[in-house]
Amino acid sequence: MEQLLQQHPEKRGRVVLVQIENPARGRGKDVQEVQSETEATVKRINEIFGKPGYQHVVRIDKPLQFFERSRCVTRNITKVCEHA
């Protein structure tokens, strides 16, 4: 996403990545490192390219049922399409 926004500034404010994470099955140091790195990356992209009330990366890190994932993605696609 970061590379896309750097190479295509016309996409800024028009695209969103919805990152729905599956809950980690373990709790080891490696899992924590990956979660911290993901959180830092999302924060960096949103701070550099985001605007008040608009984030390019939406991170959902809680368990969701299938219908909730479908609804979330559909709702966000609709919002993105409205900006096109």
UniProtKB/TrEMBL annotation:
GO BP field: trehalose biosynthetic process
One GO cellular component term: cytosol
InterPro entries referenced in this protein's UniProt entry, alphabetically: Glyco_trans_20 (IPR001830)
Molecular function via GO: trehalose-phosphatase activity
Protein name: Uncharacterized protein
Pfam families registered for this protein in UniProt: Glyco_transf_20 (PF00982)
Signal peptide: none
